[in-house]
Amino acid sequence: MNSTKPAYLTLLLALAHGVAGISILVISSWFIAVSAIAPVGFNYVIPAVVIRALALLRIASGYASMWVGHNDLLARIANIRLGVFSQLENSQINEKALTTEALAHHTEELASRWIAWIAPLSSIMFIFTSLCFIATWFDFPGAGLLIVLFAAWSIAVTLQGLRALRIAKRATCANAEFRQSSNNFLNSSAIWHLNRGLVGQCEDNATQQHNSHSASNASTLDVKEIKASNIVGKNVSAKAVWQEKIAQKNTASRTAWWFQGIAFLLVVLMISGALSIAQTLLFAPIAIVVPMVLLAAPDWAGNAFSSISKFAQYKQSAKALRQMKTTPIKMLCEREINTAITLTDFSIKGRRTNKVNTSMPAKGVVCVSGASGCGKSSLLQGLAGLLPANGKREIDGVNIPPGLVSNWRYVEQEPIILSGTLALNLDPAGQEIPHNQMTTLVQELGLDKGLLLSTWVGKAGRPLSGGEKKRVALARAILAKPRVLLVDEPFEGLDIHTQQRVCDVLNRYATDKLVIIASHVTPKALVVQKNVQLDEASVVTVNGEHRATL
Ligand SMILES: Nc1ncnc2c1ncn2[C@@H]1O[C@H](COP(=O)(O)OP(=O)(O)OP(=O)(O)O)[C@@H](O)[C@H]1O
């Protein structure tokens, strides 16, 4: 999914930062001890200059690693998002809230891996290994204790990493639930007033009726109040999400405390077990190095515990993105239609729709009508290949496998308007459709009142009415010049004059293309080639199966 090259520079700078830090600690410890016993004529300048140079290197590499790391992070986020988009291409997104969540949260988690955990953990491991090696090689007093601390650190990081993986898994579930419930909650915002309004109204009624009527009204009121309170979900709580976040932080800090305790214990052991160190110090200032490194261990090695949590979150995010719920849709190549599209026992999987048997001409307007809920929209989506279907879908007698035919367009009943200019909404794929074609069509559909191609529509722009949205979506589909145009309820919410305009556009388009319309109304101006009636009343039972007579 991510083809960005590894961030070696980020890692290198993080190593330089860590090594400079520990070198300052080692040299300054030695320098302090040396200063106490230095003979006359000892050159203080050289160690002081080295320490100062290391401090500058530490600061510079720290900032540089942040700068390089964050630039790399941004490139990675963009790259992973593109990867996720291509994963979503040709597939139906089942849970939009979760997909948005995955895009926003998980991609950042994945992209941050170099600066969040690879660089810090590698740097600490490198420092630990080098320190143990140098201390053993030069036989520093207490070198063995450094190895003990390294072992303790490795065990602590492994145990905490395992625990962090479990917490990250729970956090993803809690997050998904929270997103879903928030989404449901916000989607119900249009009826929130019913909650207060209904209760308020009930209270008014209750006050009015209280004086004249019996208490039996009060029980009716209670029922209404309870129902009203059910309108708005009450389970939208971020508590579980926060609990998991806090649990992750708590385990990291608990492990850091344990590690700190072990480091102190080792220092105490070293000092109490070897009084000789004090004497050794007089002759070998180097003896102070290991105790100082042990004392400061939580500072230079403690980061590992929060980094390992980031590793766990990364693993969880990678899994969540891989398992994102989508239904793949196969893309089929453009097909010529010479005589007809024929449907045989065609029904939509998982929908309460009847089997359809009909044939449609290669061009002209076909009108699918029928009672609400009988399956008009489902039939159009199944025909377009957006929904899986049973039965046969044939072009000129040749069966078309399941999938989306590339030059067929379905215009949904509730179209999506992008937040952008009208021109962007008409050519979202950047096909460089000439602006004069757009303007002409916009005028023909009666959309030109107050709407220019440059007008910003949708979110933070001009809000469009339901009828305007439908016509923008229709124009968008027509400008793509599909061979088959499937339009769901194009006349809904339009006045007679606008219906007339839309009919003119559709009639003209149908002179050499097939236009299939699902509609409750068939305006007189629409030149209909064929009517397909999906009606419960006309459903007959054949061999125990429902079959729509068309
Ligand atoms: N996403 C869905 N999942 C499962 N069933 C669905 C879904 N959408 C619709 N249905 C069901 O499929 C059946 C057909 O719905 P469809 O929207 O196709 O009817 P319609 O004729 O277009 O209705 P209307 O005229 O009211 O728009 C209905 O019983 C509906 O409840």
From TrEMBL:
Major subcellular location class: membrane
Any Pfam family matching the protein: ABC_tran
PROSITE patterns: ABC_TRANSPORTER_1, ABC_TRANSPORTER_2
Membrane topology term: Multi-pass membrane protein
Stretches that traverse the bilayer: 31-57, 114-137, 143-162, 255-275, 281-301
Keyword Kinase: no
InterPro entries membership: AAA+_ATPase (IPR003593), ABC1_TM_sf (IPR036640), ABC_transporter-like_ATP-bd (IPR003439), ABC_transporter-like_CS (IPR017871), P-loop_NTPase (IPR027417), Type_1_exporter (IPR039421)
Keyword ATP-binding: yes
Domain ABC transporter: 334-550
Entry's localization field: Cell membrane
Top-level lineage group: Bacteria
Keywords annotated in UniProt: ATP-binding, Membrane, Nucleotide-binding, Transmembrane, Transmembrane helix
SUPFAM superfamilies reported for this sequence: ABC transporter transmembrane region, P-loop containing nucleoside triphosphate hydrolases
PANTHER family: ATP-BINDING CASSETTE SUB-FAMILY B, ATP-BINDING CASSETTE SUB-FAMILY B MEMBER 6
Protein name: Amino acid ABC transporter permease
